[in-house]
C-alpha cells in the first residue's frame, strides 16, 4: 500500500486508479492510505456540476476541461453514474461522452456508481477527491448522476457548484426551486439555441431577485455546450466565484465545514457498522421475540443496544 501511495504522489496515473478502487471498495489498509496522502491534499479546486437529466452536464464538463487544459492545468473528473443493478458498477454513460479526453495524459476520468447512495453522489466521492488531489490535479470536476432536486450532497463536496439548466422542462420555475437555488454558485442555461432559453435565464434571475442579501449573487449565462459557444463565459463565472471565496476567506470556511460534515459522517458510518453487526445476533432475536408478548418494548431494546455499541 505504501508503494502505491508513493507512486500516486509521483503522479502515476495507473496507481491513482488502483488507489481509488481500493478506497471505493474499502479494501484492507484503505484508511491508512488516506491518512498518508491527506497532508498532500488541499491544492485542487473542486467544481461540482449538477442539474436535471439531459441538461448536457457531461458535454459541458468536457468543454470546460478542454478550456482548462489549454492553460496547462491537470484535471480530474469524477462522473457519478447510475449503478448497474447487476454488477453494482457505474453504467459509464458520462465517460463515453468524454471519450476523447481519455487520450490526454493530464486528464484523469473516473466513473463511480452511486451504489444506492442518495443525494446524487457515491459514498466514496470524498475519498476519491483526496486521491486525485494528492495525485496532483489542479481542478477536480464532480458531475452528479442527475436525478433532480435530491442532489444536494454536491454542496457539501464542491468549492463551486455549477447548476446546468435547459429550456423546455415544462414547469421551469418548479425545476429551479426547492433547494436547488440554495446550492448554486453559478448557473448555466445550456442548449441556448432552443426556444425558451432566454426565458429560462430570466426566470432564474427573477428567482435570485427574491433574495436581497447576496454576498455573491450567482451569475447566470447562456451556453451551447455541443458547439462550445458560451462555455468560456461559464468558466469565467466559475473563476469569479473562486476569486470571491479566496479574497473573503470563505474558501477556508467552506472547507472547514466540509471536514466537519465528513468527520460526522465517518463516525456515523462506524456506529452504523457496529449496529449492523448486532442485528443478526441471537441475543437481539430473543429480545425481539419478547416484543410480541409485550415483555419488552422496542425503545428499551434500542437503548440497550446503543449502550452496548458505545461502551
UniProtKB/TrEMBL annotation:
Which Pfam families does this UniProt record tie to the protein? Answer: MeaB (PF03308)
Domain spans labelled AAA+ ATPase? 43-220
Q: Which UniProt keywords apply?
A: Chaperone, GTP-binding, Hydrolase, Nucleotide-binding
Q: Which SMART domains would you find in this protein's record?
A: AAA (SM00382)
Which CDD domains is this protein grouped with? MMAA-like
Read off the InterPro entries from this record.
Answer: AAA+_ATPase, GTPase/Isobutyryl-CoA_mutase, GTPase_ArgK, P-loop_NTPase
Task: Answer yes or no on keyword Magnesium.
Answer: no
Molecular-function annotations in GO:
GTP binding; GTPase activity
Q: Where are the transmembrane segments?
A: none
The record's listing under PANTHER family reads: LAO_AO TRANSPORT SYSTEM ATPASE, LYSINE/ARGININE/ORNITHINE TRANSPORT SYSTEM KINASE
Q: Which family does it belong to?
A: Belongs to the SIMIBI class G3E GTPase family. ArgK/MeaB subfamily.
Could you identify this protein by its name?
Methylmalonyl Co-A mutase-associated GTPase MeaB
Per UniProt, what is the name of the gene that codes for the protein in this document?
meaB
Amino acid at each position: 500500500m505504501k508503494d502505491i501511495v508513493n507512486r500516486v504522489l509521483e503522479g502515476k496515473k495507473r496507481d491513482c486508479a488502483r488507489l481509488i478502487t481500493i478506497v471505493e471498495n474499502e479494501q484492507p489498509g484503505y484508511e491508512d492510505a488516506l491518512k498518508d496522502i491527506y497532508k498532500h491534499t488541499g491544492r485542487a479546486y473542486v467544481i461540482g456540476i449538477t442539474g436535471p437529466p439531459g441538461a448536457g452536464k457531461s458535454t459541458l464538463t468536457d468543454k470546460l476541461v478542454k478550456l482548462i487544459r489549454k492553460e496547462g492545468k491537470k484535471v480530474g473528473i469524477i462522473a457519478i453514474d447510475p449503478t448497474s443493478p447487476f454488477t453494482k458498477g457505474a453504467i459509464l454513460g458520462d465517460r463515453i461522452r468524454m471519450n476523447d479526453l481519455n487520450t490526454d495524459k493530464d486528464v484523469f476520468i473516473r466513473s463511480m456508481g452511486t451504489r444506492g447512495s442518495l443525494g446524487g453522489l457515491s459514498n466514496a466521492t470524498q475519498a476519491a477527491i483526496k486521491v486525485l488531489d494528492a495525485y496532483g490535479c489542479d481542478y477536480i470536476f464532480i458531475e452528479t448522476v442527475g436525478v433532480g432536486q435530491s442532489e444536494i450532497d454536491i454542496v457539501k463536496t464542491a468549492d463551486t457548484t455549477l447548476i446546468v439548466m435547459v429550456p423546455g422542462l415544462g414547469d421551469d420555475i418548479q425545476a429551479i426551486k426547492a433547494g436547488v437555488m440554495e446550492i448554486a454558485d453559478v448557473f448555466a442555461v445550456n442548449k441556448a439555441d432552443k426556444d425558451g432559453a432566454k426565458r429560462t435565464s430570466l426566470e432564474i434571475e427573477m428567482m435570485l431577485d427574491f433574495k436581497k442579501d447576496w454576498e455573491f449573487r450567482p451569475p447566470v449565462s447562456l451556453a451551447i455546450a455541443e458547439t462550445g459557444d458560451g462555455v468560456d463565459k461559464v468558466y469565467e463565472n466559475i473563476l469569479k466565484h473562486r476569486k470571491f471565496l479566496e479574497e473573503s476567506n470563505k474558501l477556508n470556511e467552506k472547507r472547514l465545514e466540509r471536514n466537519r460534515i465528513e468527520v460526522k459522517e465517518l463516525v456515523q458510518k462506524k456506529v452504523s457498522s457496529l449496529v449492523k453487526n448486532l442485528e443478526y445476533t441471537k441475543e437481539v432475536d430473543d429480545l425481539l421475540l419478547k416484543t410480541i408478548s409485550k415483555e419488552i418494548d422496542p425503545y428499551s431494546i434500542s437503548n440497550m443496544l446503543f449502550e452496548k455499541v458505545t461502551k
